[in-house]
Amino acid sequence: MKPEWLDTKEYPFKSHYLQLEAGKMHYIDEGEGTPIVMIHGTPAWSFLYRNLIKILRKKYRCIALDLLGFGLSDKPDDFSYKPRAHAANFEQLMDHLDLKNITMLVHDFGAPIGFAYAIKHSANVKRIVMLNSWTWSLSKHQTFGKTSKYLVGPLGKFLHSKLNVSAKTLVNELFEEEEKVPELIKEHYVQGLGSPNQRVKKLACARELVGVTKWYEELWKQRKQIQDIPTLILWGERDKLIKIEALQRWKKFFHECYVIHFEDSGHFLVEDNAEEVANYVSNFIKEEEKKQELLHQT
């Protein structure tokens, strides 16, 4: 049963659910072909990828989940909401779907959650598409300055300062760089955060997701497991939350990396540029599949 606030013309997908120990995880599974798995950050949910999926499902199998506490997934009181717990739930979904030859598309804190799976199952993840993201701790890293207590500085401070504001204020501030996003669309992100009591708990968890944790350090130490995976980075340059230094670090990290800059977009670039993003993703997959075919022929 879909909630009354959901516009099914904007989000015309069949809902699927995986029963986890902590609650039901919602996901959509559209189209056929090479699987593209999309992982969201905060305060987003699979709704962020709706227009991307409408285009890509014509050629690919598109899977987009809602992490527990977000979107149409359950929002249990007794779930830890720590990044390691989200990553474990995501791994259960991947095991349930038994996917191979995955293109993993990540955004925001979806990157560490997805990369935790990719590090353990690198044979299954053939390509990575990254939107503005990070996956490291700043506890011993000075790139963002000594005053940055959190990994991307402004993002951690922002979430700390917003625990007591309304969800609408939070969403409006996070989407301020995407000037063309209508209020009715923003409302879907507001509603996806749940009731005010649930919202505060999830924002508290979001602070941890961007904070300095041992888990990020553990992931970063294992990063070489994914360093050779071909990667397409699509970056909104007006992002005030994740700074350009993060992009520079990713460019140095991946051995095979293609970067597309979106000069007029911010943190949620896919809201304004779904068609363009879809074309880049589709072409990237085609080119990488061609390379693999040639390798097998030689």
UniProtKB/TrEMBL annotation:
Keywords: Hydrolase. It comes from the Bacteria. GO terms for molecular function: hydrolase activity. Gene3D superfamilies: alpha/beta hydrolase. Residues 35-273 form the AB hydrolase-1 domain. The keyword Hydrolase applies. Transmembrane segments: none annotated. GO terms for cellular component: membrane. This is Alpha/beta fold hydrolase. It comes from Pontibacter cellulosilyticus.
